[in-house]
Specification:
Layout: H1 2-25, H2 34-52, H3 60-80, H4 84-155, H5 158-162
Length: 178
Amino acid sequence: MLAYLLDRFRTDADTLRARAATLRNGPAQPGPDANMSTAMANACDTVTAMLQAVPATADAPDILASLQALIPLLEKHAHAEAAPPVRAVYAGAATRVREVTDAEAQHLGTTRVSDIAEDVDEDVGEDVGEDVGEDVDEDVGEDVDEDVGEDVDEDVDDDDLRDNDGDVPAAPHGGQRS
């Protein structure tokens, strides 16, 4: 990822310098003139220097974090630049770094999510099923059965069902209650 970005901006700088040399020695061509091509090459050199500051010996997540930290700096350079072609170099670099880091983050994230999922299934999932599940069945389930059962037994009276004690009104017209 870092090597790709370094190669990309070094190659762009070399191409822009070659263009500037061609324009200085030959006929005019469409696009930026020799001076603007040189300024764009210098901007590519600045981007390359920023990328070289990222420690290449770090692990992938650290490189990724360092590259992501460059994006606001590249955008700041783009906003500060007066010449649109040079501004485009910095804005393009920010876009390219963002695309590369997003792709790498997705790759790392997918790998990490699958690793975590396996660990959860193996380590935590079994413990939850065995320990917590049994505790819930034993502690809560029995309490619920006891408390609800006692309340039901206390509130429902056999006399209520036959309407002998007068606390439940009789069905209208001598019919049965629903």
